[in-house]
Design brief:
This protein is α/β, with parallel strands linked by helices. The protein contains 20 helices and twelve strands. InterPro entries: AAA+_ATPase, ABC_AA/LPS_Transport, ABC_transporter-like_ATP-bd, BCA_ABC_TP_C, P-loop_NTPase.
Length: about 450
């Protein structure tokens, strides 16, 4: 593999990863990339499977199915799912921290960083008593190890505490020490499991500074699990969102921040925020997602936790205040209330609808499955059908005026272009044309 191709390849590629514990599917057919030189965040509600993914990457679990492909700087490739955990660290250069701090509390801060370099020091000693006697290259290796430890103590703002027991450090400083210790192993990929957990705003800021320094000055790529959205959105280049062990979103922070499925499943976590979420998003698909329960086949039973369960019409706050939440609370509902009533009982033949290629009924009596287009759910499919849109080729032929007309009664602006409905429809039309004729419809 050439050096050029190595720089363009992701450092880590997860392909169709599944992890089952008996009848429980903790991860289901998960695929995503971690790009070299970037910070990738893995987020999702509690129980989404994030730590299980980390355990598979670092060898604590052997996945039920799938591949975990790691490509090093030199072009050497490792299949991590086939390697024991200690080789993943030593050969593939993957380091990890844990949710719970695992420092040697009785050792000094400096000694914790020297312990991380024990492989190099043992090799220099010849694995014998010669190292204790200062024979061979051990003294030089020890000096280099101390210098590396000192560098990382400075980066972590811990140089003044080098001789203090690690257990005496404040919680945030212990978090930074754990990251510094992992970096002393010279990893190509650093996996951080909730590094900002329990940190105050000042400590979170110090963590952000350290992680940016690692990204910009060491060449180490970072994959992190985090619940602190202020950390995730500020430092991440790429975000992958999980729910019930399955990927529901994958993109830049801005793309994930505005993804309705993420808002419904993760970002709107408190009952008190439901009304704000509906008003801010103004999208009936989000309202529909909030008003339905989880996927019974793959998720837990209905629960109020993390908006996993159904949201009632009335939200009772902790102080006893009762707030009614309905479609009218959103921008979508407000637009719908302001829209004029349809001229007839059959919107499909309404001349004011503004769509050039409406039909009074589906061709051959069978409509395409419009839900195959990302962004069209059951509610929007019904509305499209009510307005005479039944087939992919109708959507593929829309012009600007058609899009504006459709957005006016779907009660959102810009989403058709953002989700590229027309390109998706054209692809589905082309795909259907290459298959043997089996009658019109949208079945897979």
């Amino acid at each position: 593999m050439s050096g050029t191709s190595t720089t363009t390849m992701p450092i880590l590629r997860i392909e169709h990863l599944s992890m089952k514990f008996g009848g429980l599917v903790a991860i289901g057919d998960l695929s995503f990339d971690v790009r070299r030189g970037e910070i990738t965040a893995l987020i999702g509600p509690n129980g989404a499977g994030k730590t299980t993914v980390f355990n598979c990457i670092t060898g604590f679990y052997k996945p039920t199915e799938g591949m975990i492909r790691f490509t090093g700087h030199a072009g050497n490739e490792f299949l991590l799912e086939r390697m024991p955990d200690f080789q993943i660290t030593a050969k593939a250069k993957v380091a990890r921290t844990f949710q719970n701090i695992r420092l040697f509390a009785g050792m000094t801060v400096l000694e914790n960083l020297l312990i991380a370099q024990h492989n190099k020091l043992m090799k220099a000693s010849g694995y014998t008593i010669l190292g204790m006697l200062g024979i061979g290259g051990y003294q030089q290796a020890a000096a280099e190890a101390i210098e590396k430890a000192r560098m990382w103590l400075e980066k972590a703002d811990l140089i003044d505490r080098a001789d203090d027991p690690a257990g005496d450090l404040p919680y945030g400083a212990q978090r930074r020490l754990e990251i510094a210790r992992a970096m002393c192993t010279d990893p190509e990929l650093l996996c951080l499991d909730e590094p900002a957990a329990g940190l105050n705003p000042r400590e979170s800021l110090a963590l952000n500074v350290l992680l940016r320094d690692i990204k910009e000055n060491t060449g180490t790529s970072i994959l992190l699990i985090e619940h602190d959205m202020s950390v995730v959105m500020e430092i991440s280049d790429h975000i992958v969102v999980l729910e019930y062990g399955r990927k529901i979103s994958d993109g830049t922070p801005e793309e994930v921040r505005t993804d309705p499925s993420v808002i419904a499943a993760y970002l709107g976590v408190d009952d008190e925020e439901v009304e704000d979420v509906l008003t801010e998003v103004g999208d009936e698909k989000v309202i529909e997602q909030l008003d339905t329960g989880p996927d019974i086949e793959h998720g837990p039973e209905a629960s109020a936790s993390m908006l996993a369960g159904p949201v009632s019409d009335t939200v009772v706050h902790g102080n006893g205040e009762r707030v009614t939440v309905d479609v009218g609370a959103s921008k979508a509902g407000q637009v719908k209330k302001m829209a004029p009533a349809p001229a007839t009982a059959k919107p499909a033949v309404d001349k004011k609808a503004g769509i050039a290629n409406r039909l009074s009924a589906p061709r051959d009596g069978k409509a395409d499955n419009l839900k195959l287009i990302k962004g069209i759910g059951p509610v929007n499919e019904k509305k499209l059908n009510d307005h005479g849109i039944y087939h992919f080729d109708q959507i593929a032929a829309w012009k600007k005026a058609d899009i504006e007309a459709v957005e006016s009664y779907l009660a959102f602006t810009g989403r058709i272009t953002r989700e590229n409905w027309i390109a998706q429809a054209k692809a589905l039309v082309k795909k259907a044309a290459t298959k043997p004729a089996t009658g019109r419809g949208g079945s897979k």
